[in-house]
Design goal:
This protein has helices at residues 6-11, 49-53, 62-65, 129-142, and strands at 24-29, 39-44, 47-48, 57-59, 79-86, 95-103, 106-115, 121-128, 164-166. By secondary structure, it is of the alpha+beta class. The strands form two sheets. Strands 4, 5, 6, 7, 8 and 9 form a six-stranded antiparallel sheet that branches. Strands 1-2-3 form a three-stranded antiparallel sheet.
Length: 167
């Protein structure tokens, strides 16, 4: 049996879960009376990533996460993005982060830790760039128009923190 290089061993066999391409679906909760605040849902392959990662968390405001060039938009240099915070009137210091990167025509989310459909831990997911960007744009344009009446950001843009760090 020929010896395989460490790189090929790490990459997994063709068709392995590591090579699988996932599908992203983004939606927004409209806030009261359904929830305490407007927040974003992030579904990967039909699973709510935020709730499965930490049930105390709620997604940040969709206007912040989905804006053109915003935190979820991929770039050549991977970056760590806050996608959720603890629920409540004054969100706590805990944040759920995702590392968003771009490898060719593939968007990679890494730094994850949630149970997949088969109960194995999901640490990284990959999306086709066209599906990913199309879904972010679809979700952004589905948001209601801001109703600020000259008083600052709309409720779809408000969030306790919108931190993006380069790592």
């Amino acid at each position: 049996m020929p010896r395989r290089s460490p790189r090929k061993l790490r990459a997994g066999a063709p068709g392995s879960p590591r090579d699988a391409v996932s599908t992203l679906l983004v939606s927004a909760c409209p806030g009261p009376p359904a929830c305490t605040a407007v927040h974003t849902y992030l579904f990967v392959d039909g699973l709510d990533v935020i709730t499965r990662s930490d049930s105390r968390m709620a997604g940040l405001a969709p206007g912040l996460l989905l804006r053109p060039g915003g935190p979820l938009h991929p770039a050549d240099a991977p970056r760590t993005v806050d996608v959720a915070a603890e629920e409540g009137p004054d969100p706590g210091p805990d944040r759920l982060t995702v590392r968003v990167g771009l490898r060719g025509e593939t968007v990679v989310w890494s730094g994850l830790m949630y149970p997949g459909a088969d109960s194995t831990v999901v640490e990284e997911v990959r999306f086709r760039l066209d599906q990913y960007l199309g879904e972010i744009e679809r979700a952004r344009t589905a948001l209601p128009a801001p109703t600020t009446h000259g008083r600052g950001p709309s409720r779809f843009d408000q969030a306790p923190h919108d931190r993006v760090s380069r790592a």
